[in-house]
Amino acid sequence: MYWAGTIYLLILNRISCGYTREELAFLMGQDENYIKDMEELKIPVGNLEVMVHLHWIFDRRKLQISEFDNRSDYLFELSTWEEHDVRYYHMEYFINEVESIVFFRLMEYINEDKQDNARSERECVLVKGLLIGLVETDYFKKYRTALQLWRSMEQHIGEKIHVKSLMRELMLIVGKKGIAPLRKSKARSFGYRYIQHK
Description:
There is one protein chain. By secondary structure, this protein is α+β, with helices and mostly antiparallel strands. The chain folds into two domains: 2-110, 434 Repressor (Amino-terminal Domain); 114-196, Arc Repressor Mutant, subunit A. The chain is 41% helix and 19% strand. Strand 2 (86-94) and strand 3 (100-109) form a beta hairpin. Helix 5 (117-136) packs across helix 7. The chain starts with a helix and ends with a strand. The relative contact order is 0.14.
């Protein structure tokens, strides 16, 4: 039951913090389908290292990490579907062949950013300028995680920024040596980190 509760808390915290699956995966330093696979029960969520990284991201919330569990042979089924800019999550616990209990039902609005175009453009300009400034001041001489970078940028700008603005602008300056000033690496790390080319 703990495992299903963890999935519930993951989805609930992610939605209430306003992160998309891709944004949360980015902040954890993982590939963009990582959270989707976790929520759809394709990979175990109870790994202690995963729980610690989630705790760092949701540090202002109450996310239980006192136990962890790597089992994946539960009698739970999570259904997700999308209708009219809303993603629905429905988890059932199967008692036997004919009985089940609805464990939770959640919904998430997935296309809210259509209204934010003006703010988003302004935000991207701020993020781009700050990223260039950070590169020029050797901020990336040491490895930086996406979460560290995002929190640092919010502190410099003095207001909340959307993770997707940082994702978009950061990907424009990450690449091969001679083409982009930064590279990303997962070497000796749970997730991707960013550093300047030497």
